[in-house]
Amino acid sequence: MSKETYFIGIDGGGSRCRVRLEDQDGNLLATAQSGPANIMRNADVAEASIFDAVNQAIEATGQAIAPEQIVLCAGLAGANINSAQQAFVSRDWPFKAVYVVSDLHAACAGAHAGKEGAVIVCGTGSSATQYINGKFTDFGGHGFPIGDKASGAWLGLQAVKYALLGYDNLAPKDALFEAVSAHFNATHSQHIVQACADFNSNDYAAIVPALLPLYKSKNAIVVDLFNDGHQYLQALADSALCHQDMNLCLIGGLTELYAPLLSRAVQARIKPCALIPEQGAILLAKQAIKAGEM
Q: What global pTM score does this model have?
Protein backbone atom coordinates (compact mmCIF):
# COMPACT_ATOMS: atom_id res chain seq x y z
CA MET A 1 0.00 0.00 0.00
CA SER A 2 1.11 3.55 -0.62
CA LYS A 3 2.21 5.86 2.16
CA GLU A 4 -0.98 7.86 1.64
CA THR A 5 -3.17 5.07 3.02
CA TYR A 6 -4.81 5.61 6.41
CA PHE A 7 -6.76 3.27 8.66
CA ILE A 8 -9.82 4.18 10.69
CA GLY A 9 -10.83 1.72 13.39
CA ILE A 10 -14.40 1.90 14.67
CA ASP A 11 -16.02 0.50 17.80
CA GLY A 12 -19.73 0.95 17.15
CA GLY A 13 -22.50 0.04 19.59
CA GLY A 14 -26.07 0.80 20.43
CA SER A 15 -25.39 4.16 22.05
CA ARG A 16 -22.25 5.53 20.38
CA CYS A 17 -19.33 4.82 18.11
CA ARG A 18 -15.68 5.63 18.70
CA VAL A 19 -13.15 6.01 15.91
CA ARG A 20 -9.38 5.94 15.80
CA LEU A 21 -7.45 7.31 12.82
CA GLU A 22 -3.98 5.88 12.22
CA ASP A 23 -1.37 6.06 9.49
CA GLN A 24 -0.31 2.80 7.91
CA ASP A 25 2.45 2.37 10.50
CA GLY A 26 -0.06 2.40 13.36
CA ASN A 27 0.69 5.89 14.59
CA LEU A 28 -2.34 7.54 16.19
CA LEU A 29 -3.42 10.71 14.38
CA ALA A 30 -6.83 11.44 15.90
CA THR A 31 -9.84 10.04 17.74
CA ALA A 32 -13.51 11.02 17.66
CA GLN A 33 -16.92 9.92 18.87
CA SER A 34 -20.43 10.07 17.49
CA GLY A 35 -23.88 8.50 17.84
CA PRO A 36 -25.16 4.91 17.75
CA ALA A 37 -23.89 2.39 15.21
CA ASN A 38 -25.93 -0.79 15.59
CA ILE A 39 -26.51 -1.99 12.03
CA MET A 40 -29.30 -4.37 13.00
CA ARG A 41 -31.24 -1.69 14.84
CA ASN A 42 -30.84 1.08 12.24
CA ALA A 43 -28.22 0.83 9.49
CA ASP A 44 -28.93 4.34 8.20
CA VAL A 45 -28.26 5.87 11.61
CA ALA A 46 -25.12 3.74 11.91
CA GLU A 47 -23.85 5.03 8.56
CA ALA A 48 -24.55 8.62 9.53
CA SER A 49 -22.77 8.18 12.87
CA ILE A 50 -19.74 6.67 11.14
CA PHE A 51 -19.47 9.50 8.63
CA ASP A 52 -19.84 12.07 11.40
CA ALA A 53 -17.10 10.52 13.53
CA VAL A 54 -14.79 9.95 10.55
CA ASN A 55 -15.15 13.57 9.46
CA GLN A 56 -14.42 14.75 13.00
CA ALA A 57 -11.25 12.64 13.12
CA ILE A 58 -10.01 13.84 9.74
CA GLU A 59 -10.66 17.46 10.69
CA ALA A 60 -8.78 16.97 13.97
CA THR A 61 -5.61 15.97 12.09
CA GLY A 62 -5.50 19.23 10.16
CA GLN A 63 -4.48 17.20 7.11
CA ALA A 64 -6.15 16.93 3.72
CA ILE A 65 -7.05 13.24 3.94
CA ALA A 66 -9.48 12.10 1.24
CA PRO A 67 -11.96 9.23 1.80
CA GLU A 68 -10.35 7.22 -1.01
CA GLN A 69 -7.16 7.10 1.06
CA ILE A 70 -8.93 5.46 4.01
CA VAL A 71 -9.42 1.80 4.86
CA LEU A 72 -12.46 1.72 7.11
CA CYS A 73 -12.18 -1.02 9.73
CA ALA A 74 -15.43 -1.27 11.65
CA GLY A 75 -16.41 -3.45 14.58
CA LEU A 76 -20.16 -2.90 14.79
CA ALA A 77 -23.03 -4.14 16.91
CA GLY A 78 -25.32 -6.26 14.76
CA ALA A 79 -22.56 -7.33 12.37
CA ASN A 80 -22.69 -10.82 13.90
CA ILE A 81 -25.77 -11.30 11.72
CA ASN A 82 -24.37 -12.20 8.30
CA SER A 83 -27.13 -10.60 6.25
CA ALA A 84 -26.77 -7.30 8.12
CA GLN A 85 -22.99 -7.35 7.77
CA GLN A 86 -23.08 -8.09 4.04
CA ALA A 87 -25.73 -5.47 3.37
CA PHE A 88 -23.75 -2.83 5.24
CA VAL A 89 -20.49 -3.60 3.45
CA SER A 90 -22.36 -3.41 0.12
CA ARG A 91 -23.42 0.19 0.66
CA ASP A 92 -21.99 2.89 -1.57
CA TRP A 93 -18.91 3.87 0.42
CA PRO A 94 -16.36 6.46 -0.72
CA PHE A 95 -13.49 4.75 1.07
CA LYS A 96 -10.56 2.82 -0.36
CA ALA A 97 -11.85 -0.34 1.33
CA VAL A 98 -14.45 -1.23 3.96
CA TYR A 99 -14.04 -4.10 6.41
CA VAL A 100 -16.87 -4.88 8.84
CA VAL A 101 -16.89 -7.37 11.71
CA SER A 102 -18.90 -7.62 14.90
CA ASP A 103 -17.97 -5.33 17.75
CA LEU A 104 -17.36 -8.45 19.83
CA HIS A 105 -14.73 -9.79 17.41
CA ALA A 106 -12.99 -6.42 17.23
CA ALA A 107 -12.94 -6.27 21.02
CA CYS A 108 -11.45 -9.77 21.26
CA ALA A 109 -8.81 -9.06 18.62
CA GLY A 110 -7.82 -5.91 20.47
CA ALA A 111 -7.92 -7.47 23.91
CA HIS A 112 -5.44 -10.18 22.93
CA ALA A 113 -3.53 -8.16 20.29
CA GLY A 114 -4.58 -10.63 17.60
CA LYS A 115 -3.52 -13.71 19.55
CA GLU A 116 -5.73 -16.56 20.72
CA GLY A 117 -7.96 -15.83 23.68
CA ALA A 118 -11.48 -15.23 24.90
CA VAL A 119 -13.50 -12.24 26.02
CA ILE A 120 -16.67 -11.77 28.00
CA VAL A 121 -18.51 -8.49 27.59
CA CYS A 122 -21.00 -7.46 30.23
CA GLY A 123 -22.26 -3.91 30.34
CA THR A 124 -25.54 -2.78 28.86
CA GLY A 125 -25.57 -6.11 27.02
CA SER A 126 -23.63 -9.35 27.37
CA SER A 127 -21.83 -11.78 25.08
CA ALA A 128 -18.64 -13.81 24.77
CA THR A 129 -16.34 -15.12 22.08
CA GLN A 130 -13.22 -17.21 21.75
CA TYR A 131 -10.56 -16.86 19.05
CA ILE A 132 -8.60 -20.00 18.27
CA ASN A 133 -7.00 -21.41 15.13
CA GLY A 134 -7.94 -18.26 13.25
CA LYS A 135 -11.66 -18.63 13.99
CA PHE A 136 -14.10 -16.86 16.29
CA THR A 137 -16.80 -18.83 18.12
CA ASP A 138 -19.50 -16.71 19.75
CA PHE A 139 -21.62 -17.39 22.82
CA GLY A 140 -24.75 -15.38 23.55
CA GLY A 141 -24.93 -11.93 22.03
CA HIS A 142 -28.49 -12.47 20.80
CA GLY A 143 -29.61 -9.03 21.89
CA PHE A 144 -32.07 -7.64 24.38
CA PRO A 145 -34.65 -8.72 25.46
CA ILE A 146 -34.24 -12.27 24.10
CA GLY A 147 -30.61 -12.50 25.26
CA ASP A 148 -28.04 -10.44 27.17
CA LYS A 149 -28.49 -12.29 30.44
CA ALA A 150 -26.52 -10.84 33.38
CA SER A 151 -26.27 -7.47 31.62
CA GLY A 152 -27.41 -4.10 32.86
CA ALA A 153 -30.46 -4.25 30.61
CA TRP A 154 -31.37 -7.71 31.88
CA LEU A 155 -30.93 -6.71 35.54
CA GLY A 156 -33.06 -3.62 35.03
CA LEU A 157 -35.81 -5.61 33.37
CA GLN A 158 -35.86 -8.18 36.18
CA ALA A 159 -36.14 -5.38 38.72
CA VAL A 160 -39.06 -3.83 36.85
CA LYS A 161 -40.86 -7.18 36.73
CA TYR A 162 -40.36 -7.60 40.46
CA ALA A 163 -41.74 -4.14 41.21
CA LEU A 164 -44.81 -4.78 39.08
CA LEU A 165 -45.47 -7.96 41.05
CA GLY A 166 -45.37 -5.79 44.16
CA TYR A 167 -47.99 -3.44 42.77
CA ASP A 168 -50.15 -6.50 42.09
CA ASN A 169 -49.60 -7.69 45.69
CA LEU A 170 -47.85 -10.81 44.38
CA ALA A 171 -44.47 -9.85 45.86
CA PRO A 172 -43.44 -7.82 48.92
CA LYS A 173 -43.33 -4.04 48.76
CA ASP A 174 -39.77 -4.19 50.01
CA ALA A 175 -36.55 -2.24 49.43
CA LEU A 176 -36.23 -3.37 45.80
CA PHE A 177 -39.83 -2.38 45.14
CA GLU A 178 -39.17 1.02 46.68
CA ALA A 179 -35.93 1.53 44.72
CA VAL A 180 -37.56 0.78 41.37
CA SER A 181 -40.60 2.92 42.20
CA ALA A 182 -38.30 5.80 43.16
CA HIS A 183 -36.38 5.43 39.91
CA PHE A 184 -39.60 5.94 37.98
CA ASN A 185 -41.10 8.35 40.52
CA ALA A 186 -44.01 5.90 40.46
CA THR A 187 -46.90 5.39 42.84
CA HIS A 188 -48.87 3.04 40.57
CA SER A 189 -47.95 0.23 38.18
CA GLN A 190 -49.29 2.28 35.27
CA HIS A 191 -46.55 4.86 35.79
CA ILE A 192 -43.92 2.17 35.21
CA VAL A 193 -45.75 0.51 32.34
CA GLN A 194 -46.17 3.83 30.54
CA ALA A 195 -42.52 4.75 31.03
CA CYS A 196 -41.32 1.37 29.76
CA ALA A 197 -43.42 1.47 26.60
CA ASP A 198 -40.59 3.12 24.67
CA PHE A 199 -37.67 1.71 26.65
CA ASN A 200 -34.59 0.23 25.01
CA SER A 201 -31.68 -1.65 26.56
CA ASN A 202 -29.96 1.56 27.67
CA ASP A 203 -33.06 2.66 29.56
CA TYR A 204 -33.31 -0.61 31.45
CA ALA A 205 -29.59 -0.59 32.21
CA ALA A 206 -30.01 2.88 33.73
CA ILE A 207 -31.94 1.25 36.57
CA VAL A 208 -28.87 -0.69 37.76
CA PRO A 209 -27.34 2.16 39.85
CA ALA A 210 -30.46 2.00 42.01
CA LEU A 211 -29.81 -1.71 42.61
CA LEU A 212 -26.15 -1.46 43.60
CA PRO A 213 -26.67 -0.14 47.16
CA LEU A 214 -29.09 -3.01 47.75
CA TYR A 215 -26.58 -5.51 46.41
CA LYS A 216 -23.82 -4.12 48.63
CA SER A 217 -26.13 -4.30 51.66
CA LYS A 218 -26.84 -7.95 50.76
CA ASN A 219 -30.52 -7.54 49.95
CA ALA A 220 -31.55 -11.14 49.33
CA ILE A 221 -33.63 -10.55 46.19
CA VAL A 222 -30.99 -8.38 44.51
CA VAL A 223 -28.19 -10.76 45.49
CA ASP A 224 -30.20 -13.59 43.91
CA LEU A 225 -30.51 -11.56 40.68
CA PHE A 226 -26.77 -11.00 40.51
CA ASN A 227 -26.08 -14.63 41.38
CA ASP A 228 -28.28 -15.70 38.49
CA GLY A 229 -26.29 -13.40 36.22
CA HIS A 230 -23.01 -14.69 37.67
CA GLN A 231 -23.96 -18.30 36.95
CA TYR A 232 -24.62 -17.38 33.32
CA LEU A 233 -21.25 -15.63 32.98
CA GLN A 234 -19.56 -18.60 34.64
CA ALA A 235 -21.12 -20.88 32.02
CA LEU A 236 -19.92 -18.53 29.27
CA ALA A 237 -16.41 -18.60 30.67
CA ASP A 238 -16.39 -22.37 31.02
CA SER A 239 -17.46 -22.73 27.39
CA ALA A 240 -15.15 -20.07 25.96
CA LEU A 241 -11.99 -21.20 27.75
CA CYS A 242 -11.53 -24.38 25.79
CA HIS A 243 -7.93 -25.15 26.79
CA GLN A 244 -5.82 -24.44 29.84
CA ASP A 245 -3.49 -21.93 28.19
CA MET A 246 -6.23 -19.58 26.96
CA ASN A 247 -6.48 -16.16 28.59
CA LEU A 248 -9.69 -14.28 29.28
CA CYS A 249 -10.35 -10.55 29.10
CA LEU A 250 -13.40 -8.97 30.72
CA ILE A 251 -14.95 -5.90 29.10
CA GLY A 252 -17.83 -3.75 30.32
CA GLY A 253 -18.81 -1.95 33.49
CA LEU A 254 -20.49 -4.87 35.24
CA THR A 255 -17.55 -7.24 34.86
CA GLU A 256 -15.84 -5.60 37.85
CA LEU A 257 -18.78 -6.66 39.99
CA TYR A 258 -19.07 -10.17 38.57
CA ALA A 259 -15.35 -11.03 38.34
CA PRO A 260 -14.88 -11.85 42.07
CA LEU A 261 -17.83 -14.26 41.84
CA LEU A 262 -16.27 -16.36 39.07
CA SER A 263 -14.48 -19.58 39.92
CA ARG A 264 -10.84 -19.42 40.97
CA ALA A 265 -9.90 -21.35 37.84
CA VAL A 266 -11.49 -18.68 35.65
CA GLN A 267 -10.13 -15.79 37.70
CA ALA A 268 -6.62 -17.18 37.21
CA ARG A 269 -7.05 -16.78 33.43
CA ILE A 270 -8.17 -13.13 33.54
CA LYS A 271 -5.73 -10.67 31.96
CA PRO A 272 -6.01 -6.94 31.17
CA CYS A 273 -6.84 -5.97 27.59
CA ALA A 274 -3.77 -5.32 25.43
CA LEU A 275 -5.48 -2.98 22.96
CA ILE A 276 -8.82 -1.22 22.55
CA PRO A 277 -11.56 -2.47 20.16
CA GLU A 278 -10.79 0.22 17.55
CA GLN A 279 -7.25 -1.11 17.33
CA GLY A 280 -8.64 -4.64 17.16
CA ALA A 281 -10.77 -3.71 14.13
CA ILE A 282 -7.72 -2.27 12.37
CA LEU A 283 -5.68 -5.35 13.24
CA LEU A 284 -8.30 -7.69 11.73
CA ALA A 285 -8.55 -5.57 8.59
CA LYS A 286 -4.78 -5.62 8.12
CA GLN A 287 -4.81 -9.40 8.56
CA ALA A 288 -7.52 -9.66 5.87
CA ILE A 289 -5.48 -7.45 3.51
CA LYS A 290 -2.38 -9.58 4.07
CA ALA A 291 -4.39 -12.72 3.37
CA GLY A 292 -5.75 -11.23 0.14
CA GLU A 293 -9.32 -11.14 1.45
CA MET A 294 -9.75 -7.41 0.73
A: 0.90
